[in-house]
Known about the structure:
This protein is an alpha+beta fold and 338 residues long. The protein is 54% helix and 20% strand. The model has no long low-confidence stretch (mean pLDDT 82).
Amino acid sequence: MRRKKTIRPIVLLTAAILYVWAVFFCGLAGKNADLTHIVLEQGVDTAAAEGIFCREAEAEEPIGCCFWGETSQQMVSCRETRASAKVTVVSLSGNPELMRAGCLKWQEGCLIDEGTAQTLFGTTLCAGQFLLHNGETYRVLGTVPALRPTLFTMAKAGDTLSRCVLALPAEKGKTLGEPFLMRWGLRGRVLDFYPFLALTENLLLLFPGILFLTVCGHLGKDWRKLSLQGILSGSQRLALGKTALALGLAVGTFWLLTKRLVIPPDMIPSRWSDFSFWGTWWKGQKENFLRILFTPLGSGQLQMLLNMVKSMGTSTASAILTLWAVRRRRNADIADRG
């Protein structure tokens, strides 16, 4: 019997730990969601990209940008250790800080991922070392975390860049990214990650929402008991205090839930009588999902999606465990009354 009583607290503690991890992963995903990613239909060369970057910086309301392209399955090697590795070479033009490679702007060299650094040099502390790629020598400026072997370098004259990153938060990327393309005569598709981020943040409401409904259920039971018996004893006055505290917690939790609920702006129709809106919206979301699914993504985008999936999984698991514990408590109460 004692073992059965300890299972429920352990399950609730596990659910709370999973929820903390879900919030953590969602925060990591949000850090990578402060950018807007665009796939260009026709690539631009380095000179054109530098020109757009410089002219945009002089605009009245400038938008930070970084054009980039990548070439996979490239061999890099170290002359001293004679080790080699295959990497994806990412060439940047514009503001490299948007690709988490800020020091490239001011120094000639490259950044490599930590795994490649370990393979080539036997350590991640390899700043100042040199590596070879296509007969050219690159000075390593440092390492960056990445999901796949990657080498970051500034684009050379004649390179073709097929991607663009804008310093726009995800919720504004679709509305401001397309005017950016039109302004500079570019054609491309905005990868809209905001609906997935909104879903990730909304799933975080499951755990506190279940607790809110549970508190409301106990609140209703205590209130019915007090209304039937009257406030006559000290224990009933204590029960009334608990009821008032539970009511305050329930109201506060409900207020927080409504404040934290994220609704994408394009999900709200301009006219509620437009019944075709939802069909068009779902079709657009499907096309956007397929575009993201079949577009080769950069390291930052992959990391963001991975953190979203981790957050969704842990928050859902937390909610399922909480529901199981609540149901177990309800069954125990029914058995006690029987």
